[in-house]
Amino acid sequence: MRKLQFALLLSLGMFLMITTTAEAQRISAGGGVGYGSKSENVNFQVNAYYQLPTLPLRLGGDVGFSKPEDNLTEVETNLNVHFMALDTELLSIYTITGLNVLYARFSDDDFSESDTDTGFNLGAGGELDLGFGRGFGEAKYIVGSDRDEQWVFGVGVRVRVSN
Q1: Is 23 helix (H, G, I), strand (E, B) or coil?
Q2: Are 58 and 49 in contact (CB under 8 A)?
Q3: How far apart (Å, rounded) are the C-alpha atoms in residues 26 and 8?
Q4: How many domains does the chain have?
Q5: Mean of the pLDDT values across residues 3-18?
Q6: DSSP string of 119-159?
Q7: Residue 146 to residue 84: CA distance in whole angstroms
Q8: Closest among 19, 73, 70, 20 to 48, alpha carbons compared
Q9: What is the pLDDT averaged over residues 51-75?
Q10: Strands (E) located in 4-111
Q11: How many whole angstroms from its chain centre is CA 45?
Q12: Radius of gyration (C-alpha) of the chain in whole angstroms
């Protein structure tokens, strides 16, 4: 639990630090859904990213929540770096590298147990301009413990944050 709290606090601090010094058009936030190949669970996520002004890099992260099922609740946090291989007004293609933290809690009437696993994620994604925001699709592989090592696929929408 302490690792999860640390990861969430770190991601919130990073986001607040970036947003207080960033230009509004360089910040995007949104949400989407994802699916893990091993967990076979639908995940709902929120995310925020900051485009560095002089480098083809974007920093940020996401927090995903899985629907509680069979007394199991999972919260996944990712701190990511996107290398923008192609970044135009219409289309963006990027690689993903980052830290993954998975918090899982099982509880029923007589028993409760929680566990936190960390790993790395590697993958790629793309964004397409939709007019009101940018639709995104991502595929990444999480490398970590046997329990959370899996392919994860996600889709959603990000919008630019304005003043």
Answers
A1: coil
A2: yes
A3: 22
A4: 1
A5: 57
A6: EEEEEEEEEEE-SSSEEEEEEEEEESSTTT-EEEEEEEEEE
A7: 30
A8: 19
A9: 87
A10: 27-36, 42-51, 57-66, 72-87, 91-107
A11: 7
A12: 16
Is a pLDDT exceeding 50 seen at residue 22? Answer: no
* pLDDT tens for each residue of 117-161: 889 999 999 999 999 999 999 999 999 866 668 899 999 999 998
What is the band of 24 on the pLDDT scale with cuts at 50, 70, 90?
A: very low
Domain of residue 66: give its range: 2-160
Residue 39: closest CA among 158, 144, 122:
144
Mean pLDDT over the full length of the chain: 84
Burial 93-102 (b: 16+ CB within 10 A, else e): ebebebbbbb
pTM, two decimals, is 0.79
Residue 17 sits in a domain whose CATH number is: 2.40.160.20
Q: Is the pLDDT of residue 163 over 50?
A: no
Helix/strand/coil for 61: strand
CA distance 52 to 7: 22
Dihedral angle, C-alpha 75, 104, 73, 98, nearest 10 °:
20
- Among residues 66, 149, 67, 139, which one has the least CA distance to residue 100? 149
Buried b (16+ CB within 10 A) or exposed e, 145-154: eeebebebeb
